[in-house]
UniProtKB/TrEMBL annotation:
This is HAD family hydrolase. It comes from candidate division Kazan bacterium RIFCSPLOWO2_01_FULL_48_13. Belongs to the HAD-like hydrolase superfamily. CbbY/CbbZ/Gph/YieH family. CDD domains: HAD_BPGM-like. Coiled coil: none annotated.
Amino acid sequence: MAQRFKAIAFDLDGTLIDTEPFYRQLMAVVLKQEFDYLLAKEEYDQYYFGRTTQQGFTDIVSKLWGRPATTDEIEQIIVKVREQAVKLREYIGAEIFPGAVELLKWCRERYIPTAIVTNASRRTVEGNRWWYRWDELIALADHFVSYSDVGKSKPAPDVYFRAAELLGVHPAEMLVVEDTVHGIEAGRAAGAVTAAVNGLAGSGADYYFATLKELTFHLPEFFPQK
């Protein structure tokens, strides 16, 4: 028999909305312009996937320079990233994954508390509501938690501790849905049960569903109605 929960927390980027093509292009453009460096897909997956922009650029720039990049140096690069992001968002959109809206509506119709939890900063998401499809997607959740709300990003568990607090449940009573290993690690470190989606098999998650639609199909097992 499947475990039963009182609330559910979803990652945003790569789980509910497909922003990876944008961020992969953003990182590649900045590295080419600033360092004349061509970013391979494998490097993007290693340095950026499931991490913050600051974390990704800190590690790859430190590798290129052969020494640790300072906070001030990374902040100068992040300014360039923000400038380029404004331009790229004009022609690279973020597509909502099939089944994401229906999944959130399914939870809302059954009064299941939900939170969207992201490694993106609140400034980035709220400052680009149109691009992140806030009204169509994020507004369907009861709560929104950003790493900048707690000061630590995944794989630290802080964002999920905060989500559980807002949802009014113990972390063990919350199902965490993620698409990256860092996200799964954060959920597990918080004491939550984790479900991996969108191709993240073999991640160490407690459950795996190939798509959001498959997850929705199985949710009645986790949230049986009286």
